[in-house]
């Protein structure tokens, strides 16, 4: 079983709740998880599995608790080879910048050499007022890859 870091980007608490929920599910499957709500780059370096769960704020921007790490990643461009990641992006489709933060993060992590282990999940809160429900279904589709 793998150790998995769940990093959340959240302003109103929704993405944080999804992170806690996915963490509980993974723990009940025997994985060791750590949820970080104000991550820094060093939180990535010693872990090989990352689940990034972020909502979008501003106009396609990262929530304030995630922005500093993502800006540091963009500026410092560390080599993330060896890191395996997946992104859950939460947004509202009435915005032109729907799920912009999760989309940016998904591209950046790949550009820095990390390996995507699942296609990004975009959750529209207009369709899913409880984003943990589609997130749980998404997790069950690919979590076997965590044991490979
Ligand atoms: C001020 C504000 C700006 C937002 N901007 C966007 C946006 O640009 N794109 C998007 O998809 N959703 C946007 N949203 C919707 C949030 O991402 C959505 O409500 C999400 O569920 C909030 O998650 P949180 O509770 O983790 O912060 C915005 C919401 C607010 C309140």
Structure description:
This is FMN-binding protein MioC. GO terms for molecular function: flavin adenine dinucleotide binding; FMN binding; oxidoreductase activity. With 148 residues, the chain is an alpha/beta fold. It has one domain (3-147): Rossmann fold (3-Layer(aba) Sandwich). Helices cover 35% and strands 22% of the residues. It has five helices and six strands; from the N terminus they run βαβαβαβαββα. The chain has helices at 14-28, 42-45, 67-76, 100-111, 132-142; strands spanning 3-9, 32-36, 49-55, 84-91, 115-116, 121-124. Strands 1, 2, 3, 4, 5 and 6 form a six-stranded parallel β-sheet that branches. Strand 1 (3-9), helix 1 and strand 2 form a beta-alpha-beta unit. Helix 1 (14-28) packs parallel to helix 5 (132-142). The longest helix has 15 residues, at 14-28. The mean pLDDT is 94. Bound molecules: flavin mononucleotide. Residues 10-15, 55-60, 63, 90-92, 95, 97-100, 125 line the site of flavin mononucleotide (FMN).
